Each structure stands twice: as C-alpha cells, then as structure tokens.
Amino acid sequence: xxxxxxxxxxxxxxxxxxxxxxxxxxxxxxxxxxxxxxxxxxxxxxxxxxxxxxxxxxxxxxxxxxxxxxxxxxxxxxxxxxxxxxxxxxxxxxxxxxxxxxxxxxxxxxxxxxxxxxxxxxxxxxxxxxxx
Length: 132
Prior knowledge:
With about 130 residues, the chain is of the alpha+beta class. The protein has one domain (about 15-130): Glutaredoxin (3-Layer(aba) Sandwich). It is built from five helices and four strands. A four-stranded mixed β-sheet has the order 2-1-3-4, covered by helices on one side. The radius of gyration is 15 Å and the shape is globular. Mean pLDDT is about 85; it is low at about 5-15.
C-alpha cells in the first residue's frame, strides 16, 4: 500500500496536467499559458513532449509558472492563430485575454534554451502586469 501511495504521489509530481484549449477558454487560469502544438506523424513532437516530462527540474519549473495546454492540431480544436505548419510549436498566452505574449518558438529546442525563453516570457508578463 505504501508503494502504491508513493507511486501515485511521484507520478503526480513528475507529470504535466495537459489540458485542452477549450478548458482554458472556459476557465482562465491566473498564470500564463504554455501551449504545445503538435500534429500526427511529427517525430519531434513526441520527442519534445517526452523530454519535457522526464526532466524533473524543467517539469517543476513549468508546473509552477504556467498552465499547460497540449493541442494535436490533427485531431483537436485549435484556434486559427495557433495553427502551425511547423511542429512542435510553442506559444505563450496571456491568461485573461488569451493573447500571445511573445512570438512562438518552433522545433526541437534544448530544454535549457526553452527554460531561458520561458524565463524571459515570465519577466515580460510581470512587466505588463505592473503597467496595467
């Protein structure tokens, strides 16, 4: 029983709660939204997703600072402004109006570079909050 409880807790700590765009649209979070867009037959999409969730330090950073959305544009609803011919594609949306905070990033990005980009986005988001 202890093993099962430890397993459940560790799975929850080291996994992402990917939600759909519709869930974000209906229930706006109070933090920026990290959107991962993939499509069927995208080799690097699955590599990126697996790499993100296997890196505990990156995973912890992502969970703490962003609401995470996963969209497979081959199957899921996706707003036109998030459609991409290049995948994987990564967007950061402002939480209240679902506007883009910065230009998207594309392709297989090393996690250290992804984290640097995300930290810059958080700084931009903080500056914007102070302005308004």
